[in-house]
Amino acid sequence: MHSVSNSGAIKLSSGNNINQKKDNRKHKVKITHQTPVMGQLPATTSSQPKVDTGDHGYILEDVPHLTDYIPHLPTYPNPLQDNPAYAVVKQYFVDTDDTVAQKIVVHANSPRGIHFRRAGPRQKVYFKSDDVHACIVTCGGLCPGLNTVIREIVGSLHDMYGVKRIEGIEGGYQGFYSRNTIQLTPKKVNGIHKRGGTIIGTSRGGYDNKKIVNSIQDRGINQVYIIGGDGTQKGASAIYEEVRKRGLQVAVVGIPKTIDNDIPVIDQSFGFDTAVEEAQRAINAAHVEAESNENCIGLVKLMGRNSGFIAMYATLASRDVDCCLIPESPFYLEGPGGLFEYIEKRIKENGHMVIVVAEGAGQDLVAESLRANDNKDASGNKLLDDVGLWLSQKIKDHFKKQTEMEINLKYIDPTYMIRAVPSNASDNVYCTLLAQSAVHGAMSGYTGFTVGPVHGRECYLPFYRITEKQNKVVITDRMWARMLSSTHQPSFLSTKDIIESFTDEAPPTQLLDDQVADNSLVTKETTIC
Ligand SMILES: Nc1ncnc2c1ncn2[C@@H]1O[C@H](COP(=O)(O)OP(=O)(O)O)[C@@H](O)[C@H]1O
Ligand SMILES: O=P(O)(O)OC[C@H]1O[C@](O)(COP(=O)(O)O)[C@@H](O)[C@@H]1O
Ligand SMILES: [Mg+2]
């Protein structure tokens, strides 16, 4: 029997008929009374996706469980059942069959589509509290909220499950085999959410799968919490595979971190909200400078290597920005419809303007005028040329040589100031949910997964789902249109470009994948709304 909650969480259970009727009426969907065929596929070998199917096109993209490769593991009652704080919560434990729909905008005849396992505490756990030896590692660039996640993992393990042995791995992945660990206790992490950075340190590079798993095995660690971006999660997935190959009872859990918000599937990544808020300060400063000086342009560079979410949201929030440039939207400088023409128009009209540029924007243009740069950082990420400095120079040169107009340009690069701040209140709550979900998942025996909200519900996601592609701003989407209409900037796109953007790759849509044939639907229903 199927039931659909308002939030999109779908429950596969033998629930009661009254609820069934209510849901059918509410959603006007004819649901036949058949039990979904769960568990049809055999337990997977490593690195194969674990997929179950049910009726009406229902698909569960499940995450691995320790019992997939270590059968007959003993279980224990969840200690939370005796926790007074949760005593009043009705149905505190998540039903093992609860799943969350990936896409919630559907048509009457839509197949039910892809679902993910709902996160949360289970009735049975696969670790005795006294036997748990957990570790936490943070990798990649800084992001507001890292300390909050650390604090909340420690708090959840300790307060909910009575776990005492928790270690921080110092300085990212390489810390597993080259550094000492830091004992993490509730006292040690008290108040760290009010500080930026990560108390256990982070790094790029230094990933050595065998050495890391040896270290996990030698230290007797059986729960590994790995906080980091796409590179980190790829590494976490390989650690899980190696742990599984060795047959270890070790839960490997990823917590996705990216200030750029470029991780797909999840609603948003932690620290993004804080970054957008903090970016307002830089934009305000640029606006104050621009307004107070004659013919002045305030130029702000914001983070966003491949995705322009911070720039787009900061622009939309501010309303003082006249032009926002992001990696997903190519632009050009010279000629009709170009950036210089628009700047000239705005300065003539208004006497000043504010431009926001994401760090990955216009890299093709920058590369044309500077020597080719193939430099990479320690993790193998391409090092970008500074588009902010390049654009400042280009604008100055153009106005000096080509026009009568004297302009004044103030350039602000707040990158490290933004990502070094502590997370704001909303990110703190979000980090708490992520950390609690991660801990519940590991204690329940799930492994090889990452956590995150899908339509507001915390889910367990297979690693491949979040590492296979990057989340990008869809420039044929309503959100980008909202942004364009707030700045009045040119779109820099011809009709031909728009048509090509559809044919190159169909934009993501809320509708299920096999309904994406008609582009008129796609433009109406997209992921960000
Ligand atoms: N494909 C990969 N496989 C395994 N480890 C990786 C991979 N890409 C990056 N890493 C490791 O993950 C860590 C963080 O990666 P990085 O790209 O710097 O940041 P992020 O995790 O934020 O993307 C580094 O220690 C790096 O060596
Ligand atoms: O200077 P660093 O430490 O290499 O980091 C710079 C990069 O990190 C970022 O802040 C993004 O990092 P994450 O997506 O991993 O959070 C980018 O915007 C920027 O290019
Ligand atoms: Mg990355």
Task: Provide the list of bound ligands, each named once.
Answer: adenosine-5'-diphosphate, 1,6-di-O-phosphono-beta-D-fructofuranose, magnesium ion
> Separation of termini?
31 Å
Please tally the β strands and state the result: 19
The number of helical segments is: 18
Report the sheet-strand fraction.
15-25%
Mean pLDDT: 86
EC number: 2.7.1.11
Pathway: Carbohydrate degradation; glycolysis; D-glyceraldehyde 3-phosphate and glycerone phosphate from D-glucose: step 3/4
Domain Phosphofructokinase: 135-440
GO cellular component, one term: cytosol
Mind explaining what this structure looks like?
The chain is an alpha/beta fold. The chain contains 18 helices and 19 strands. The protein has helices at residues 17-27, 66-69, 146-161, 175-178, 186-189, 209-219, 230-245, 272-292, 309-318, 339-350, 363-369, 387-402, 415-419, 425-443, 463-467, 478-487, 495-504, 519-524, and strands spanning 2-4, 9-12, 50-53, 58-62, 76-77, 98-101, 113-118, 124-125, 133-138, 165-169, 181-183, 223-228, 251-256, 296-302, 323-325, 352-358, 408-412, 449-454, 457-462. Helix 6 crosses helix 7 (230-245), helix 8 (272-292) crosses helix 9 and helix 9 packs across helix 16. The radius of gyration is 25 Å and the shape is elongated. The protein binds adenosine-5'-diphosphate, 1,6-di-O-phosphono-beta-D-fructofuranose and magnesium ion. GO terms for molecular function: 6-phosphofructokinase activity; ATP binding; metal ion binding. It is an enzyme of class 2 (transferase). Substrate binds at residues 258-260, 303-305, 359, 416-419. Its EC number is 2.7.1.11. Keywords: Allosteric enzyme, ATP-binding, Cytoplasm, Glycolysis, Kinase, Magnesium, Metal-binding, Nucleotide-binding, Transferase.
